[in-house]
Amino acid sequence: MLSRLVREHNQKQQAVRRNNEQLRKEAVQAVSEVTDSLADTLNERVSTILKTQREIESEARKLSSQSVKYTKQTKQWLSMLEGFNSALKELGDVQNWAEVIEKDMREIATTLEFVHKGTIEGQTITAEISTVSGDNKTN
């Protein structure tokens, strides 16, 4: 009877061991499948992130080169604008100079007309000047 009890006990232990081994294999298989599934999902996300990162870097390089281009163009425009402003100032100076010359020429023309009228009227201007200067000598 004792040997029968030992045999039954050994058989139950073997059955439990087989069952545990089967459950362990199933658990390992399930964990392996979950791990593979998670790894695939994670790899897809990482792949998408890397692709997006490359696109962003490419766009950043394009933006940088365009910024440099626009900076150069803006500097050229500023240089042209400074030249234009300088030319306008010079034109303003020329216009002012021309106005001063025109004013001086009008004064000269008026003076010449005055002198010309004086010589036509019989040199009254010269006579008046000589009498005025003669009066100064006697005093």
TrEMBL record:
<dbReference type="GO" id="GO:0031083">
    <property type="term" value="C:BLOC-1 complex"/>
</dbReference>
<dbReference type="InterPro" id="IPR009395">
    <property type="entry name" value="BLOC1S1"/>
</dbReference>
<dbReference type="GO" id="GO:0016197">
    <property type="term" value="P:endosomal transport"/>
</dbReference>
<dbReference type="Pfam" id="PF06320">
    <property type="entry name" value="GCN5L1"/>
</dbReference>
<protein>
    <recommendedName>
        <fullName>Biogenesis of lysosome-related organelles complex 1 subunit 1</fullName>
    </recommendedName>
</protein>
<comment type="similarity">
    <text>Belongs to the BLOC1S1 family.</text>
</comment>
<feature type="compositionally biased region" description="Basic and acidic residues">
    <location>
        <begin position="1"/>
        <end position="11"/>
    </location>
</feature>
<feature type="region of interest" description="Disordered">
    <location>
        <begin position="1"/>
        <end position="20"/>
    </location>
</feature>
